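Session log. Operator J.P. requested a structure for one protein chain; no other inputs attached. Running the standard single-chain path with token output.
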Amino acid sequence: MTLVADVAPVPVRAEALRAEALRGFAPWAGFAVLLTVAVLLGGSADRWQGGWAETRSELHDALLIVLPLAAAAGCWQGGRERRRRTEELWGTAVRGPLARFLVSALPVGLWAAGGYLVAAGGAMVATWAYARGDQPYVGLLAADAVTLVGGAVAGQVVGRLVPWRLAAPVLAMAGFVVLGVVGSARSGSGRLLDPAFSVGVGTVPVGWQPGAMAVWTGGLAAAAVLAYAARRRYTALLPLAAATAAGVLLVQTGDGLWQPNPAGRGQVCDTSTTPQVCVNARYRGLLPQVTAALSGVTGRLDGVRNLPVRFEDRPGSPRRGEAELPMLTPMGWSFVRGRLTNPERYAWEAVMALQNRADCAKAPDARVSRADDAVENYLAPSPAQTTFDELAAEGDKADRAELAQRRAARARLAAMGADERRTWLSAYFATARDCDAKGVPAL
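Structure written below.
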């Protein structure tokens, strides 16, 4: 009988943990996190589906919502015995307070992290079907999962200490406000310690940042648990010291925690066209679509001189002899789920990049404007060109006269022979980025 009494507590603990994990409140907490992330991602699918960095950023940004949710779930679980009026009964249990606490708290945290990871896995599968290059970014997912466990466990400490039924929703709202305010700061050390700090699509963390963030958040949660429930409360100093060291490392590194994504520095190019067509290496699989969308423009420019060497797609301004490729990002506009949404408009935007006079102090005069309009109409007319012409035709006498002259210039350029048009376009593109109208050939 003595032997049975000695070993009995072990299966009791396992059975209690299993009951909490499978039949208690914890599965509902995990389902709530899963549903919340799914709703957040589903409502913004056009912005991330098909891009690995975009998917990572959307998943990480969801932490702003689900971390306070996990903390509130832990807080609600922490007040369970008080609501049931069984606190005194649990105080007579054989198991120590730390063991009782962990049996109640860990399932909620693990289910919350599990719900988040299941949602993340679904998002990765959804992106894989439309990805046009790059690779998955999973470094932040593990740190986010640890943060969710820590948030739920720390929330349970609050639930044990605060005898108020509204503690859970108030904790969720307060957590959301604090994370949002700290994360939105442009400077200061607080944002560096914010586990929900928004991650830009074009950046990646240094290799040790997710681990340091996990130690920071997990260490603080562990310190809170040990200070509350451990028999030797001084043991809380160990995880607190680890969290402090990680926090100091994060703060001292500053903005160096995030670096430009190396994958975004390179390009892949189609050199068979004039100008050449290059897309960012992160979307290398999109090059055939972009080349096809611009084929009407590049085909009409075959043999024309004084053109940029290529359409480039790198961060920053184009170099000398290059034109900026129309934007593919942010996703959700011209680029959705691995496809160009409007190739005709994309081609028109490329022509606008070739004609760039945005740096001129004043608008070009009427003769230059008509030449620009004729070239635009010949290479890739605006999808709204017909609408603009109809509005001008319904305008006053000056509008109708200007429209007539524009149409005449378009007709003259279209009626030129191939060699004559190439010569004229070569002279035109020699001045396409100039603000001085004197050199622009007449039509």
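Operator note: Confidence is low (pLDDT under 50) at residues 1-12.
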